[in-house]
Design brief:
The protein is mostly helical and 140 residues long. The protein has a single domain, classed as Rossmann fold (3-Layer(aba) Sandwich), CATH 3.40.50.2300. It has five helices and four strands. Strand 3, helix 4 and strand 4 form a beta-alpha-beta unit. The longest helix has 26 residues. The radius of gyration is 14 Å and the shape is globular. The two termini are 21 Å apart.
Length: 140
Amino acid sequence: MVCEGNVCRSPVARALLERALPRVSVSSAGTRALVGRHADPLAVQVAREHGMDISGHVAAALSNEHVRAADVVLTMTGIQRALILDRFPSARGKVFRLGEHEQLDIVDPYQRHRVIFELAFAQIEHSVLKWCEDLARLMH
């Protein structure tokens, strides 16, 4: 799971996917990560209200090792997808936008009101559920 700062969307997406597909190994990183920072307090709060604890998350920068090790890389926006494909050409064919099923970029809630965090959570949750079927097929 990839977003920009790796403190809001991708940690939530990781937790949701891990909950939905517990046998899948999931990591998250950012294209411009706030390396070393914990998840945003509002992201932690919204995740907790949905039964997930992301309080231990620490932001990491997307690396070649992340991309190489991943079977699938899911980004929050089309711009992030394009950036990864430009930066890591070997990732072609395995980088997709999380909201691809609906042609949707996940809203960035960073430094915004709680309602935007809730909207982002809803978009991520819906998109993760859409991907679960596809990812479950890859596991078999």
